[in-house]
Write a structure and sequence with these properties.
Blueprint lengths: L2 E8 L2 E11 L8 E10 L1 H8 L1 H4 L11 E2 L2 E11 L9 E7 L3 E4 L1 E5 L2 E4 L13 E4 L5 H4 L2 H6 L1 H16 L7 E5 L4 H11 L7 E6 L4 H7 L4 E4 L12 E5 L4 H11 L3 E6 L20 E2 L2 H12 L3 H16 L5 E6 L1 H12 L7 E6 L2
Parallel strand pairs: 11-12, 11-14, 12-13, 14-15, 15-16, 17-18
Antiparallel strand pairs: 1-2, 1-4, 3-5, 3-7, 3-18, 5-6, 6-10, 8-9, 9-10
The protein binds NADP nicotinamide-adenine-dinucleotide phosphate (NAP).
NADP nicotinamide-adenine-dinucleotide phosphate (NAP) binds next to helix 1, helix 5 and helix 6.
Length: about 350
């Protein structure tokens, strides 16, 4: 009998967690049990928990009304199978619980992977229900497993943001302001803009004082501005704001400073999850959520199936290679250590120089 370990969070207070150990459940029809080899942990996972009820992230690996398990990106190996199309030993990249094991229900099985067709996941965004068979992945990805866990879900978004900005000729902006630029999603975007010779706009990174040296070490921002010093940015130069922070007061200050010279305000994340997003009446453009699937759909039509994903994966590999030495990958195991790191992450006590890869096995 396999024992499984999970980290449960109270849904209305994500700082509070408990480690739960229990026997693996008996498998139902077509179900498989996977052992989760490793997964990445970043502020993105905190955002999943913060938006757990609103967007439905608690629904992927449900517990009950009070408790939830936060989803993570990682690799897992099948250890028991009731499914003819998936064998013990098969390995998959995808969306897993913060746990040692998970029960999945593979359907629409292809050599490249499967979709989890469990009833409770059917209404959730399809992207998260897709599992990629590692043996069928492109060669260049096979050697980048840690990077795939830690960076790729974020750098793919960075690339899509970059593509979206370029596709819209930067909305007429001559500088791009990146909120929470020390985040992986943030510096990934700054990287793409900085390394594109056809982009002449300046890249201005916004961050907290403690993260300035880290951002400077990446060499991808023309200017780095700390929170509270936004008036140091030249407001006569039209700007595009791409925000990973979700920080409402920061948004108000930028809109006040730039007024109609703010060409677009694109909301992506909420690393400053306790700052409050409510911003009331704003001068300048109405903030809009970035909806990656729209940009993907547009490019699928224009470029053909899979091309945008191929480009995003290649860009992710390039960015990951460029930050070797700046972000130190740490492999950490154990449920209690995992719970401690979760608390630190929620409290902003993890330096952007640390890349956390966890295993609860
Ligand atoms: N909409 C989408 O499709 C999409 C896709 C990917 C990511 N995202 C979002 O983008 C955001 C960034 O994710 P990531 O995984 O790239 O982040 P990350 O690398 O873990 O970001 C770390 C940085 O975030 C800030 N931060 C982290 N925790 C904080 C806290 N508790 N309080 C205040 N600041 C904190 C700090 O940056 P500063 O000091 O520089 O602020 C820190 O250096 C997340 O909200 C994520 O959900 C959205």
């Amino acid at each position: 009998m396999t024992d499984i370990t999970e980290l449960w969070l109270t849904r209305n207070d994500i700082r509070n967690s408990k480690v739960v150990a229990k026997p693996a459940p008996a498998l139902g029809e077509d179900e498989v049990l996977v052992e989760i080899d490793k997964f990445g942990l970043t502020a993105n996972n905190v955002s999943y928990a913060v938006a757990g009820d609103q967007i439905g992230y608690w629904g992927f690996f449900p517990v009950d009304d009070q408790w939830g398990i936060v989803p993570v990106w990682g690799y897992a190996t099948v250890t028991a199978s009731n499914n003819e199309g998936v064998a013990v030993g098969d390995r998959f990249y995808g969306y897993y619980p913060f746990a040692s094991h998970a029960v999945l229900k593979p359907g629409r099985i292809k050599p490249s992977g499967f979709v989890d067709v469990a009833e409770h996941r059917s209404a959730l965004p399809g992207l998260y229900n897709q599992y990629n068979r590692t043996s069928a992945e492109p060669e260049f990805l096979k050697g980048m497993e840690d990077e795939r866990c830690l960076f790729f879900p974020l750098f793919v978004t960075s690339y899509l943001l970059y593509d979206y900005l370029k596709d819209n000729e930067l909305f007429g902006a001559k500088q791009v302001l990146v909120g929470s630029v020390s985040s992986k999603t943030g510096f990934g975007l700054a990287h793409c803009l900085h390394h594109d010779e056809t982009v002449s706009a300046r890249v201005v990174g916004l961050t907290s004082p403690g993260n300035v040296d880290f951002v400077r070490s990446l060499g991808i921002c023309d200017d780095i501005v700390t929170y509270g010093d936004e008036t140091a940015i030249d407001a006569s130069v039209p700007a595009a704001y791409v925000d990973m922070s979700g920080d409402g007061p920061l948004r108000v200050r930028l809109h006040d400073h730039f007024q109609d010279n703010l060409m677009v305000d694109t909301m992506v994340g909420a690393t400053h999850w306790e700052a409050g997003g409510g911003s009331g009446e704003l001068k300048g453009p109405k903030p809009e959520f970035f909806f990656a699937p729209s940009q993907i759909e547009k490019r699928e039509k224009e470029w053909g199936p899979g091309v945008i994903f191929g480009k995003a994966l290649q860009a992710s590999a390039d960015i990951a290679n460029s930050v070797k030495g700046s972000v130190e990958v740490e492999k950490i195991s154990g449920a209690e250590t995992g719970a401690d790191l979760w608390r630190k992450l929620v409290n902003n006590e993890i330096s952007p120089r640390r890349g956390l890869i966890l295993s609860l096995v």
